[in-house]
Amino acid sequence: MKDRKSLIGIALIVFGMFFMLNEINLFHFGWGTLWPLFLLVPGIMFEYAHFVKRANPGVLVPGGILTTYSIIFFINGFLGYHLMEYMWPFFLIGPAFGLFQLYWFGGKEKALFWVSFGLATASILMFMITISATVFKYIVPGIIIFIGVKLLTDAGKPKKRKKNYDDF
Questions:
Q1: Is the dihedral angle over the CA atoms 151, 154, 156, 159 positive or is it negative?
Q2: What is the pLDDT of residue 135?
Q3: From the DSSP assignment, how many helices (H) and strands (E) are in the chain?
């Protein structure tokens, strides 16, 4: 009973903070930013079921996935969904995190570790490719502009004649 009261107390404090921040216009909380709670609450309940109630470690997989996805959607809700252009690779982190939790708190099966490692690595590599494609859009034209400016500035200068030591 004590655990339930403390959990309800924490939830009330968090909701009260949301409403207070909304009232002082520090953040705007509406359904556009708060809907990921529908993913976060079940995700935390799955985590709670294992860590407090000692349920089967298999509940950590959906718990990790839902919690990770809710964090991704919260970030996009607060900062703008235009970031999804760059954050889409992190959707592989959800299953990676859930499977790693199952590995760590379950039977330590190596296959779970390697699958979660592979998903996390693929996610990070795809994120780096996504970011590099964006950076590439700006760096290559910058290099081309630099070369063009260099050619223009060097065009007016007389060429230096190489010294030929065979000439007397």
A1: negative
A2: 73
A3: 7, 0
